[in-house]
């Protein structure tokens, strides 16, 4: 009887190890899917997100559990460590959406749309119309370029670099996150600079015409001309935006991997 009980306990140990590994993998992937684009898009149904999360967990659990350095032990430390890795990936990649929203705010000023806001389904706050448009444009570029697969590949590599149960947060990661947040303003300004420059040039031209020819109604046609010129420059600059979004997305992903490995 004792021998039979010992054999049944030994048979349950691999399953318990696999179940614990699956739980930790689920926590790590959950942080990525919760924050990283395009998985955080409200256009993706929650049931589809959960199904995708469970499917990826089932596929990655045998690989993660077989890594020799893995310390599969369900406790507060291991769960928080895995959650920090997933949230670090998701937070880093979500900064691309924030950069696009900031660029949309700057473009709205140039287009005289600064008072035209819509309810953003992501943040649940009033957001400039062009900010929402650029946000969806960024998601389209990510899907078209296959960058979503790069995110999953990076998470798979992180299982080898930081095995299950070995993840820890350090102060350097917080400093790097602050530096990445500060880069949002520069990235958004890069995207909006051509349109802003054209808008300022039109305003200066209209002001000079009104100064030297007061009889002409320059101020009446100033806003329509500025809007038309801004549209033309924006359409022309859209040709280089996909390459910029891909490059910026890849750099954010590389930075997240360095912070996790550090």
Count of the separate structural domains: 1
Q: Which regions contain 5 or more consecutive residues with pLDDT less than 50?
A: 1-12
Distance between the termini: 50 Å
Order of helices and strands: HHHEEHHHHH
**Major sheet attributes:** 2 strands, antiparallel
How are the strands of the biggest sheet laid out side by side?
A: 1-2
Mean pLDDT: 79
Provide a descriptive summary of the structure in words.
- The protein has 262 residues and is mainly alpha-helical.
- The protein has one domain.
- 78% of the residues lie in helices and 2% in strands.
- It has eight helices and two strands, in the order H-H-H-E-E-H-H-H-H-H.
- It has helices spanning 2-35, 46-65, 76-110, 129-145, 147-161, 171-212, 218-237, 241-261, and strands at 117-119, 126-128.
- It has a two-stranded antiparallel sheet with strand order 1-2.
- A hairpin with a 6-residue loop joins strand 1 and strand 2.
- Helix 1 packs across helix 2 (46-65), helix 5 runs parallel beside helix 8 (241-261) and helix 6 packs across helix 7.
- The protein starts with a helix and ends with a helix.
- The model is unreliable at 1-12 (pLDDT under 50).
Features:
78% helix; 262 residues; mainly alpha; elongated
Task: State the gist of this model.
The chain has 262 residues and is mainly alpha-helical. The protein has helices spanning 2-35, 46-65, 76-110, 129-145, 147-161, 171-212, 218-237, 241-261; strands at residues 117-119, 126-128. The protein has one domain.
């Amino acid at each position: 009887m004792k021998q039979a009980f010992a054999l049944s306990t030994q048979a349950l140990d691999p399953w318990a190890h696999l179940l614990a590994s699956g739980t930790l993998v689920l926590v790590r992937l959950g942080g990525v899917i919760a924050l990283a684009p395009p998985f955080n898009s409200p256009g993706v149904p929650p049931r589809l997100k959960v199904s995708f999360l469970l499917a990826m967990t089932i596929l990655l659990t045998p690989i993660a559990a077989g890594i020799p350095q893995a310390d599969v032990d369900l406790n507060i430390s291991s769960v928080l460590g895995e959650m920090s890795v997933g949230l670090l990936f998701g937070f880093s990649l979500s900064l691309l959406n924030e950069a696009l929203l900031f660029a949309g705010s700057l473009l709205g000023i140039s287009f005289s749309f600064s008072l035209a806001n819509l309810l953003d389904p992501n943040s649940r706050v009033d957001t400039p119309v062009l900010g929402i448009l650029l946000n969806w444009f960024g998601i389209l570029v990510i899907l078209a370029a296959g960058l979503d697969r790069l995110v999953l590949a990076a998470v798979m590599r992180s299982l080898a670099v930081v095995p299950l149960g070995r993840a820890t947060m350090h102060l350097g990661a917080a400093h790097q996150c602050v530096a990445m947040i500060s880069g949002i303003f520069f990235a958004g300004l890069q995207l909006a600079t051509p349109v802003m420059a054209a808008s300022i040039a039109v305003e200066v031209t209209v002001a000079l015409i009104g100064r030297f020819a007061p009889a002409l109604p320059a101020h009446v046609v100033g806003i329509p001309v500025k809007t038309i010129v801004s549209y033309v420059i924006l359409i022309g600059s859209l040709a280089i935006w996909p390459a910029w979004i891909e490059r910026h997305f890849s750099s954010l992903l590389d930075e997240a991997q360095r912070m996790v490995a550090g």
